[in-house]
Write a structure and sequence with these properties.
CATH superfamily: Carbon-nitrogen hydrolase
Number of strands: 15
Shape: globular
Order of helices and strands: EEHEHHEEEHEEHEHEEEEEEH
Structural class: alpha/beta
Strand content: 25-35%
Helix content: 10-25%
Strand order of the largest sheet: 6-5-4-3-1-15
CATH topology: Nitrilase/N-carbamoyl-D-aminoacid amidohydrolase
Number of domains: 1
Number of helices: 7
Largest sheet: 6 strands, mixed
């Protein structure tokens, strides 16, 4: 199974519209090319992970997903998805809903997974909001649904748990996904450089403690005054880093062996000793 992780970059002060960034993201998906089974884009790439003042303006209406209608930011990405025939986790967008959530907000941090035909396979609303009262907690609703999905062909063979960025700090989420059969964690992010060592450590921790693959895509560059951390990575079920990006925009291409999960779990059956 070949995985591509697209570490899309921002340029401080660049005036890039949602449409222009969507075209650029789609171009990077195309550049990853056929032969990949799973492609990952980062968190809030169309809206800007820390550009909270722009989230409303750049938000996307996902109400038509059940009818096969994609929002403008995802249309070019879906076209590229069909061209390369891969499953594409489109990172996440700032979703706008007509009806408010429990806290009266209309925005959500929402991920969409497309199959090789560009059809919606799964969605996930970020559960843990970063900002300590500002940013996401102030402007966005929290998701409440655990999402674990069997990856469709061509990326079949692994059951994937979906999470986003700050979720990584909450190991109980990944234990719950493990208990629903997760073998792979897919994590789009907009993680800052200031705490990039936490990112690198926690990716390996989630892989080791759950004996799962981790495919994690971060953002590059600087925007809204925040330097992004880069260092997207693919980690195997033993915690070995199979590939890691630098700080700039780049795409990782990594071959993973889906059977490695069961081999690791059988060879070192730590999960069978859980007591709580």
């Amino acid at each position: 199974m070949r995985v591509a992780v697209i570490q899309l970059g921002y340029a401080e002060g660049a005036q890039e519209s949602v449409a222009a960034r969507a075209d650029r993201a789609a171009g990077l998906v195309r550049s990853a090319g056929a032969g990949h089974d799973l492609v990952l884009l980062p968190e809030l790439w169309s809206a800007g992970g820390f550009a909270s003042a722009e989230w409303e303006e750049r938000s996307q209406d996902l109400s038509g997903l059940d009818r096969g209608e994609l929002p403008p930011a995802l249309v070019p990405v879906a076209e590229a998805t069909r061209e390369i025939g891969a499953v594409v986790h489109t990172g996440s967008v700032a979703e706008r809903t007509a009806e408010p959530g429990e806290e009266g907000r209309h925005l959500w941090n929402t991920s969409v997974v497309l199959d090789g035909e560009g059809r919606v396979r799964a969605t996930y609303r970020k559960i843990h909001r970063f900002g300590f009262g500002g940013g996401e907690p102030k402007l966005m609703e929290a998701g409440g649904e655990l999402v674990v999905t069997d990856l469709p062909a061509p990326a079949d063979g692994l059951r994937a748990g979906l999470s986003t960025c700050y979720d990584l700090r909450f190991p109980e989420l990944y234990r719950a996904q493990l208990d629903r059969g997760a073998q792979l964690f897919v994590i789009p992010s907009a993680w800052p450089m200031a705490r990039v060592e936490h990112w690198r450590l926690l990716l390996r921790a989630r892989a080791i403690e759950n004996q799962c693959f981790v495919v994690a895509g971060n953002t590059a560059g600087t925007h809204a005054g925040v330097e992004m951390g880069g260092h997207s990575a693919v980690v195997d079920p033993t915690g070995a880093v199979l590939a890691e990006a630098g700080a700039g925009e780049e795409t990782l291409s990594v071959e993973i062996d889906a059977g490695e999960v069961e081999r690791v779990r059988e060879g070192f059956p730590v999960l069978s000793d859980r007591r709580l």
